From TrEMBL:
Protein's name in the database: Uncharacterized protein
Amino acid sequence: MAVLFIFNSIYAQVAIGKETVDGNSTLLDFNNTAANTKGLILPATQGIPAGSPANGTFIFDTFDDQVKVYENNTWKALSDIGNGSAIVANTSDETGNGVVMGTQAGSADGILVLESPDKAMILPKISSPHLNVKNPYPGMICYDTASKTFAVFDGTFWNYWK
């Protein structure tokens, strides 16, 4: 029993909304059935977070209503200026340091940190989110299976990246 616990702790893979993870190189995987219309919602921040974020950090910046990624020591917009008025502010006190998956102690500061030298996250897959997601939330991201692109919702429009 102890060996099984240690093995699962070291090589943990997480499936959300389904029973198994697709592939051995997946750290976090979502329910990707054809009927899926649920994406991943990015944290909404009031401006750029303080400190030195890790490359690959994603946010929805409510200061200018844009989805952004931190890459090569700079913030890059992934969307046009959208509309964050639908965002409901979380007024509860923060507790803890977030969740780190893939390693015992992460070096990045975030709510959910995925760190692994050989595993990746599979985004929720949605066919034509601009048609099939009826009420998208600002900062929602997914993989569009119809156009084969990374899709981000800025609160007004879907933005697509190849």
